[in-house]
Amino acid sequence: MNSLSTVDEQQLQVLMARQPIYTKSKEVVAFELLFRDESGNFVKDLKDDEATLNVLLNTYSSVQDKSSVRQAPLFLKVNDTFLLEHDIPEIPRESFVLEVIGSTAITPKLIERIDFLVKEGFKIALADYDPRDPRFNALLNLAQIVKLDLRKFELEELLNIVRRLRRKGVELLADKVETVDEFQACQRMGFDLFMGYVLSKPQLVRGRSVKGNKLVLLQILTELNNPKATSQSIEALALRDPELVYKILRVINSAAFSLRREVSSLAHAISLLGLDQIRRWVMLFLSAAEEGQPQEMTRAMLQRGRMCEVTAEMLERENPMNHFFVGLLSQLDALMEIPMDELMAQVPLDHHLKAAILEYRDSEGEVLQNIEFYERGNFAHLRLPIEKPYLEVAYRHSISWALQVLTQMQEEK
What we know:
- The model is unreliable at 1-5 (pLDDT under 50).
- 47% of the residues lie in helices and 13% in strands.
- The chain is of the alpha/beta class.
- The strands form two sheets. Strands 1-2-5-6-7-8-9-10 form an eight-stranded mixed sheet.
- The protein contains 18 helices and ten strands.
């Protein structure tokens, strides 16, 4: 197996992913780190060195904000062993939130330790809070954020808990928010922050059809996959949306491609760059969120597509670009708010790729399923014949790549 130059950077001996934490307006304000060691166990002692810290701060905390990139705090899961047996490294206090997990043994010694850390400027989040468990009471006066798992409470019970906690002045984080109805209910109850896969499971509308700019993009994508396609036939379709052609040409003429002379037509661009590069940019514009939709949806699509492609290259699979398509399109239902089965019926995509998306078939489907496991921190389910540290580096690379592309797309608006 060849190691790609794109992932030839520092390897961590820890599998690590991140899960966004949103505000009421679905803006990303923090990330929770999901991590396991090579054996699949919870990591109690992350390697304490400058290189690891730089990886966390420079990649895992990065979030796209319009045409720039900013750093968001990282929630780092800790327990009594970590807090009592290890010195917390000299990390920027504003960059990390220490998330005390529910299985922690809460003792007077631990309370004293957390009190010290709060006075040192650390922010504390209390995870897995349950008012029926008296262990947590001693931490409520120290924690600034309390996380509640929606799956553990009935709605009426949760409402009463929220009312009591609001009086303590803590921020409330709703965990495992999976549907639009749950998100809206938590908003009404007074939650401040939200975690879960609500963005990947929006309110899907049966019978809705693909319209406007997205329809033109899908028609172009179909023609790009037609073996008899010519640069002229592709350009003729694209000219149905002149603004789209303008955007594509602006990107191609930007510094990203470093062309020696200006490209004035899509047919000219195809002759210079080839169909695959044009196909990739059509896909990127297809992933662009509509007005009012969170940018996080586009970022997630780009990141998954890139990680599928890079993983396919490391495994020396055929057609890595097809893996990119499948990864990106696998979240198109959320963007379009159309159930995936209906969307695939409308999208004139190759049957082979549709089967990969709908049924995880063939190489594209196998890679897609494993990348989904990785994204959710289900590291024990990974089955690809690849050393796991390579996947972590591929994931990290894909985060950076998606941010760069998203920034470029924002600048071209």
